[in-house]
Amino acid sequence: MTEPRTRALLALSAAALAGLLAGCGGANGGGSSSGTTTPPPAQKSTAPAGATRVTAELADFRITLSQQTFTPGTYAFAVTNTGHHDHALEVEGPSGENRSSTVAPGESTTFTVTLKDGKYEVYCPVDGHKDLGMKTEITVAGAPVNNPGTTPATPSTPTSPGNGY
Ligand SMILES: [Cu+2]
Question: Which of 52, 97, 120, 161 is the most exposed place for a label (fewest CB within 10 A)?
Fold first, then answer.
């Protein structure tokens, strides 16, 4: 009846030995993470394919957009805070309210907005920044684009093969 116990002991000492050997060999089992450090998926791929990229610079206290007039469609706003305060970008209009996350000074973020026909107010929703001048207006009009230059001409809207209306 002592057999299993002996065996366990043997196994234990074998393990200890192995551990010692491993220790001597310098091959430390724990830190073999020398491989590729795969970057975390921090980059939210919120921008659907075909979204037109727009840049928005948030300064103290001014908003500069790369364009003021739009055609209906989906846009990926690349928001960069070049100021010294936290800022954010809100796009408010016929599509409702779309707000980026708050961006710290020197940071940037991207958020995606689908714009419909109409006028939108674009402003910083942080504190009183809107009244300090961080607001502008954009106009969305016209037919959905096939921007001859910017987008790789999506043949048709992939999301609605039929008609969504
Ligand atoms: Cu602000």
Answer: 161
Edge-to-edge strand order for the sheet containing 69-70? 69-70, 135-140, 118-123, 90-93, 96-99
Strand partners, 137: 121
Give domain status of residue 92, yes or no: yes
Per residue in 8-17, pLDDT (tens digit) is 555 555 555 5
CA distance 123 to 120: 10
Length of the chain measured in residues:
165
Geometric angle at alpha carbon 120, from 159 and 73, rounded to 5°: 20
Q: Which residues hold their Cβ within 5 A of ligand 1, which is an ion? A: 87, 124, 126, 129, 134
**Residue 132 CA, ligand 1 centroid: distance in Å:** 9
Q: What is the CATH number of the domain that holds 123?
A: 2.60.40.420
Identify the residue whose tokens are 């975390």.
Answer: 40
Range of the domain at 108: 52-140
DSSP string for 96-126: EEEEPPPB-TT-EEEEEEEE-SEEEEEE--S
